[in-house]
Amino acid sequence: MRLPRMLALGASMLVLFGACSVGGSSKPTIKLGSDGFYESKIMAEIYGQALEHNGYTVDRTGIGLASRKVSAPALESGQIDLKPEYIGSGLAYYDATKTTGDPATNAAALQTILNGKGGGITVLNYSPAADQNAFVVTSTTATKDHLATMSDLTAVAGQLKFGVAKDCGTNPVCAAAIKSAYGVDLSNALPLSACDQPMVDALTAGTIDVGELCSTQPDIAKNSWVVLTDDKHTQPADNLAPLIRNDYLAKVDKASFEKILNDISAKMTTADLTKLNAEYVFDKKDVSTIAKEWLTTNGFV
Question: Is 14 buried (19+), middle (13-18) or exposed (0-12) by CB count in 10 A?
């Protein structure tokens, strides 16, 4: 009788371990995405590594997709489940009339719109970290043309060469907003990769006199460039927030999943973003290393 009892015990242990194995691997793979510029990729990688540390499997195929015109439909269609978003620009993509300088207002308005997109998409907590479109000139140009604000451009715009993001013509907070507020026509501006090295190179070389950069690009401080004050407030509050599809949240422990990303948002600052960007641009670290070091320093892994 001892052998059957041992066999029975062994069988019961296999069932137990099998159940534990299934439970441990029951979290569905999350498809992670981002826009094409390096800051967005870094944030996506931070999300991804934090989720992996908590037992999730991450598919990174969608990281660096392209502009919001590509990444937003990808999220709506389910091509990706999660992406970092700049809530003011994200809101402007859907309805530029609702953007404000208040991140809470922007997040709420974006959430209302996303309730009806792709079966429902949730805007998680927005971060203190923000990165806005910034029109930048060299200190030499600022002095020569007496430029401190965007309004100062109005009188001399015809003498200046502009560089803008490739989607500026269709981005409601770029060409249309700048022309409406400041009378500056950007239709003939040089289109370059947003928030990326080509814009920096063009401004450095003098190919352009005014460049549309991201406010957290580390090149601005390093080169003592001048960010022109958006005195007519064309740019919305662009705090970072994770966007996640509701159908993915329905498959996992929603509260614990959201806490992982909300804790990251709470810890990330604008100064951190700028520092992480500098590590990518100047220290030539790869995105994975930058993300891991930030997560380790801040106690997430």
Answer: exposed
Give this prediction's pTM. Answer: 0.89
Full set of structural domains in the chain with CATH:
23-130+238-297 (3.40.190.10), 133-227 (3.40.190.120)
Taking only the tens place, the pLDDT of each residue in 96-144 is: 999 999 999 999 999 999 999 999 999 999 999 999 999 999 999 999 9
Give the three-class secondary structure for 283: coil
Contact 62, 74 (CB under 8 A): yes
Contact 230, 88 (CB under 8 A): no
- Angle between helix 254-267 and helix 38-53 axes, rounded to 10 deg: 130
- Cβ atoms within 10 Å of 224's Cβ, excluding its own: 10
Burial code (b: 16+ CB inside 10 Å, e: under 16) for 275-288 equals: ebbbbbbeeebebe
